[in-house]
Structure formats: C-alpha cells, structure tokens
Amino acid sequence: MPASLEAEVTYNKNIKMLPVILAGGTGSRLWPLSRSSHPKQFLPLLGEQTMLQATLARLEDMEDIDPPLVLCNDEHRFLVAEQLREQGIDNPQIVLEPVGRNTAPAIAIAALVTVERDPEALLLVLPADHLIPDTAAFHHAVEQGRTTAEQGYLVTFGIVPTGPETGFGYIRANPGDGCLTVDEFVEKPDSATAETYLKSGAYYWNSGMFLFKAARILEELEKYAPDILDSCRASLAESARDLDFTRLAPESFTACPNTSIDYAVLEKTEAAALIPLDAGWNDIGSWAALHDVERDAETGNVLRGDILVEDVRDCYIRSEGRLVAAVGVANCIIVETPDAVLVADKSRSQDVKTIVERLKKADRGECNFHRRVHRPWGFYEGVTRSDRFLVKHIIVNPGAALSLQMHHHRAEHWVVVKGTAKVTCGDEVRLISEDQSTYIPIGSVHRLENPGMIPLEIIEVQSGSYVGEDDIVRLEDNYQRIT
Fold it and tell me: Comparing C-alpha atoms, which of 16, 8, 255 is closest to residue 123?
C-alpha cells in the first residue's frame, strides 16, 4: 500500500453514508454536572445545544447522508429520543445497549444493522461528546475520507496535535499528502514522549472518529475479533422493538468482550488509513479541557452563572443556581450544583473521577442523579427530605402520564400549582385544578396525568416508613418501563 493515498475529493454519490453516533458513557471527570443518569453528552456545556445536538447539527449541511443511528445506554433512551426530536429527527434509529462494552461491539452492531438494508453503505462513526468548531474543515475531511473508504480502507481521523498532550492516544502515520497510511497506534504517553511525538510531526491524536464500509468492518471483525462479532450477531438476532427503540438481548451482549475498535481491529489490520483533521477538536474530557476552550484572553477565567470574583485568575467557575464568590484564587475549578460543590486544582481535574468512585462505593446518590431527575413524561426535583418524608416539585408534559402504580411504604399528597391534573386513585378518576389537592393512601393504585395544553406542576409530599424511588410497583406504563 502506498504511503499516501489519493487525496482528490471525488466520492460516489450513489453510496449512502450513515452517521453512527456513540452516545454511551458517563463523563465522570465532569462531575458534579455530569452524572450517570444525565452525562455530559446530554448537557449544554457550550452554548444552548447539548453535545449530542451539536454533533447532529454538524451533519446538517452535508450531502448524501442518511439520518443517524444512535447507540446509547438503556437508561438514557428517552433523553436521546427527546433531544433528537428537538433537532427535527422524528423517526430515529436508536439502539439500546444493556451494558457498556466499548466501541468495538457498538460499531459491530451498527454495521450488522446497516448491511441488512444496504450492503454498500458507509458508516461515519462519531462520539456524541466532541467539540469541533471548524465545521467546514470537518466536512472536507469527511469528504476526503469517503473516497478512501469506498476503496475498502478503514479510515480514522487523526487530530493535528497542538501540544504535548498526555491524555490522548496517538497514531503514527507515514508522511504524505491527503489520506495517509497508518504505521502504528500508541497508548497515552508521558510528557517527555509526548514532546518527541509533537516534534516529529508524524503523530496525530486518536480522535475515536472513523469512516468505513459497513461490510468491510464486518470482514475485519470476522478476521480479528470473531468472538465480538458472534456475540453481537446473537444479541441482535434476539433483539426486540420497544416503542421507537431496538433493545439488544442482554445476555449475549453482556458476554461480548469489552474492547475498543482500535484494539480489536485497527491496530491489527493492513487496511487502516488516516485523514489529518485540524478543526479545533476537543473531546471535553475534563474541566481543564473545558476551561481551555472558553478561557478569557485577559484573565484566563471562565465564569458561567451567578459569579462574583475578586483577584481571580485562570479559573473555571460555574454556578447552576446559587451565587458563587471567589477571592484571591488561581488555577482552580469550582462547580456548584443544587446538591454538590466541586473545588479542585485545575491540574488535578482528571482526578475528579476518583471522587465519583468514592461516591459509588459509599452508595451516594450524588454520583448518579441530579436534584432534577428527567423522566419520559417530564421531570421532578427534590425539594427536601428526611427519613420519613420527601417533598418533590413535579413537572408533567402536556398529554403525558406517569405509570399506573402503587407503593407499599408511603402515602402521597399532591397539590396542583399550575395546570390541571387528571388523577386516578383506586376506582375514582377526577380532575383537580390549581390550588386544589388530593391524597393517595399507602397501597392505593394511582396515576397522575396531564390532559391539558400547558405543563402541569404539582408539589408532592411523600410520607411513610420508606420513601425511596424503588418503592414503585408499576402496573401499566405508556413507556414500557418495568422498574
């Protein structure tokens, strides 16, 4: 294979390209804003769009491209569906992974789904949480990659490095113009090694973005990782449709090795090729990375929310609600949310994940949930709680309904503060309006619905011997949830 492949942008418009959006992951280094129930890819970290929506928007002006296929965790399915709907994607392909198994199984599933419909289709694999400010440069790189992928190569997009970064893996490519042949993939280096990589000019950051024919990646998986492919075939064959989602069979998918596509195929294949990409890329993998993207040129600060500072430099300070004041500090990360505050040295921002690990070990809810918890019918926010009572602010979207359910250990009092509620309690069904209330005794079968055209807001007071979220027995649910 030549050291440099043809760089001319002349792809076959009859071959469709399907974006495959990888939307799994928890983004633990961006805690307390990113949590397992609502991770960074679903948050508006930069501007008004979430990271997922920005990834989708980046594709809107591209030619000869199909609507995306999104792979995500089961618990995030309604977040994904709603954010796609907001982007104007009304009939999305969403595949639910019962557990996280890295990129090789996810890409294998996407390829298997695609070849059944179009054996010639290309897959453009994109993580949902990357920043790429220069959209034109990204489009040009993809167009270059299409011509190479159509020839049967497995294309990866290598980021032109801007510094001796130790947080990324690297790819060494042979010198040339346009699309380059890959010499080797290397792990995250130490500082001295990263400096030599940068000076050589032959190394690129591994972006985790790829472009190849669906049939071609399956051939290489069959050759280098047949166990992954066998597990994915079995899981897809036993999959089920659930509303707008394809739910993979959990047993066979869980048995699949937890491996990246780099390790499973690209480090071994002779068909790997690289397109250099210089588009301001950043994977926003830590608070320090987010600071670098937004920092003020004069002070070095990033101040988001209700912030008051005096003699503060090179800090990232973010408030999600309360006033945050800082005096005489430098190189700090300060992030306030309603139920947790993070203070860290900016140089230690990668270590935030250790706090999340400690919260998990202590079985603390702050690692999983925000005070605002999103549900397919709307959301709720915790107001206050003790061992025997819990107060929530509940918002139900127009036309939406909670499950028909009952509780073994708690009673509930509902007060409507906005809109009209349709309340089922036992055999009784009635409407209650603003400033009216109702009582749900322990053990009563009940349901809350919003029959109106505006969001329904209620205050719920739970009382009883146990007020945990797992004290719910669902008898009927519009969203087919079991728990």
Answer: 16
Distance CA 215, CA 90 (A): 27
Question: Parallel, antiparallel, or unpaired: how do β-strands 316-319 and 302-304 relate?
Answer: parallel
> Could you tell me what percent of the chain has a pLDDT over 90?
83
Tell me whether residue 397 is exposed, middle or buried, using C-beta atoms within 10 angstroms of its C-beta: 0 to 12, 13 to 18, 19 or more: middle
- Measured CA to CA, the distance from residue 89 to residue 19 in angstroms comes to 13
Overall residue count recorded for the chain in this entry = 483
SS3 call for 158: strand
CB neighbours of 116 closer than 8 A, spacing ≥ 6? Answer: none
Q: How far apart are CA 343 and CA 20, in angstroms?
A: 36
Q: Confidence class of residue 10 from pLDDT cuts 50, 70 and 90?
A: low
| Rounded Cα–Cα distance for residues 187 and 79 (Å) | 33
- In the chain the first and final C-alpha atoms are separated, in Å, by 54
pLDDT digits (tens, 9 = 90+) for 362-420: 999 899 988 888 899 999 998 988 889 999 999 999 999 999 999 999 999 999 999 99
- Asked if 306 contacts 319 with a C-beta cutoff of 8 angstroms, the reply is yes
Which ranges of 238-286 would DSSP assign to H, the alpha helix? 250-254, 261
Report d(CA 46, CA 468) in Å as an integer: 34
Phi, psi angle pair for 334, to nearest 5°: -130, 115
Cα separation of 231 and 219, whole Å?
15
Residue (of 64, 59, 68, 58) closest to 12 by Cα position: 64
Which helix H or strand E contains 307, and what residues bound it?
strand 307-310
Structural Rg of the chain based on CA atoms = 25
What are the CA-CA distances from residue 157 to residues 206, 208, 273 (Å)?
Answer: 7, 8, 9
Average pLDDT over residues 316-329: 97
Tell which residue, 152, 130, 125, 159, has the closest CA to residue 275.
159
